[in-house]
Amino acid sequence: MVRDDLPEMVPFALWPEPGGLLEWARTGNGDALYWLTEGEPEDWTTVVWNPRDSSGSDALDAVAFLFAYFEGRLDVPLFGPPPPEPGFDPHRDSSHVYVKLSAGELPYEQHRDWLLTYEDCYGHQIRVAFPPEDDDEARAVILRAAEVMGCQVLRAITIEGKPAWLG
Question: Which domain of life is it from (predicted)?
Answer without folding.
Answer: Bacteria
